[in-house]
Predict the 3D structure of the following.
Amino acid sequence: MTRIDAKFADLKSQGKKAFVSYVMAGDPDFDKSLEIVRGLPGAGVDIIELGLPFTDPMADGPAIQLAGQRALAAGMTLKKTLELAAAFREQDDTTPIVLMGYYNPIYSMGVDKFLVAAKAAGVDGLIVVDLPPEEDSELCIPAQAAGLNFIRLATPTTDDKRLPRVVQNTSGFVYYVSITGITGSAEADAGDVAPEVVRIQNASGLPVIVGFGVNTPEKAQAISAVADGCVVGSAIVSKIAGGASVDEVLAFVKTLADGAHRA
């Protein structure tokens, strides 16, 4: 059982939904980013998604694109992202960490080398948005063999014919992208999301976490009420971009987590 599996089992036993937060590793710099990440569990975060800074983030809207640029400008790399995860693990051995990003940096490091380093750093799962199921032998299956969950995205355009292929080698949870488009570009609607969540749960047997378009405590509550939890990314990243202090960022995250946990 991975930390992700254990977290969902624990939440289920409490009758609670999961709150997942996304932050870009190294935004605005390594030290402040680490301070924020270390504070997330205390702010109510159940699972941390750590963005891998990348020069060409195709699925991301302006807020997360700019976060990646700030991190890269501050010298962030995949190696330093793993160092940040390892530094977090020194103080927290239970909160799951999921790396979310694109395949290029992993490919450049080398899959085998990356998986050994990720496991050693205490990473629990991967979301690699530009590797479709047809490429599972590239990273997904080796990651599972290394003991990491490989989490797949499903979208409003993932029809009943495609869905079984998408969830075939998925583990941990399924990330449902609630809108068509980029991150931060529209708001999720619980009425639209609810039947899709049930469909994906039935196909996968896994928890379904909803992201893209969740940006307020009220929205976090509404979406979590019809799913196994929600993800907030752009709204948190925008606080960091605005120069908010670590305490201010974490106070905002707590309002979102409280919303999700009220569901």
Q: What stands out?
A: Strands lie at 18-24, 47-51, 97-101, 125-128, 149-150, 153-154, 174-177, 208-211, 229-232. The two ends are 26 Å apart (CA to CA). The longest helix spans residues 246-261.
